[in-house]
Amino acid sequence: MVADEQEGKGTETVCVRFSPLTAEEAQAVLDARGTGRHTIRYIETPDPLRDARPGSQAPLFVPDGAGDLKVATLEWGFPLDGRPHAVFNTRIESALKQLRPGGRGMWAKAIAQGRCLVPVRAFYESHATERVVSEKTGRPVRREYRFRLPGARAFLLAAVQADGIFSIVTTEPNASVAPVHDRMPLVLGPGESSVWLGSEFASLADRRSVSLTSCPE
Q: What is the C-alpha R_g of the chain?
């Protein structure tokens, strides 16, 4: 599998796993907006069997065409060269270049018209050098770290979608993620979901102000 193959990044694997909400939980979040009610139960350690990986289906928040949001279940990962789900991350830098006059590429339409939101409990990144022994194979594998937004039962990742398929948008890592990986999902803080869905979305590429907590798996 590959992440975003734009600009020679064909072997880069960024976010390949996250802990999604259920469709019912995602709908409850939309229904509870403005009420102050907590609709998501905090889970200290998400169940890995329920985690989403490329090829999984997950509930997203997508614009409904009438100025509001709706829940839609989409498949994670765009096809490439006959390989399903091959491209599951979108470098924000590549997508923004494709928006320029005369620009084109696989993200041009998705970033312009298909920006959406992925509600998650956590996302995972693999460390570049740390190794642990796999319980399944007994062989050394890269250690995974789970990242969460402090004090949040759930939070939002920026994504793009087209034709029932989505990809998680990535950017340069902040201080929380940099010790583990050289990229990170574009994590949206409070009030930023409307910015991502609006005309000023490019301003969110810098995530240095977003703090995350991490835990080794």
A: 17
- What pTM does this model have? 0.91
pLDDT at 61: 98
What is the Cα 148 distance to its own chain's centre?
12
Residue 55 or residue 140, greater confidence: 55
Asked if residue 190 lies in contact with residue 210, where contact means CB atoms within 8 angstroms, the answer is no
The tokens for 177 are 């993620």
Name the phi and psi angles at 92, rounded to 5.
-60, -35
- CB distance 170 to 4 below 8 Å: yes
pLDDT tens-digit map of 77-106: 999 999 999 999 999 999 999 998 887 899
> What's the DSSP call for residue 201?
G
Contacts of 177 (CB under 8 A, 6+ apart): 125, 147, 184, 212, 214
Q: Which residues pair with 74 in a beta bridge?
A: 58
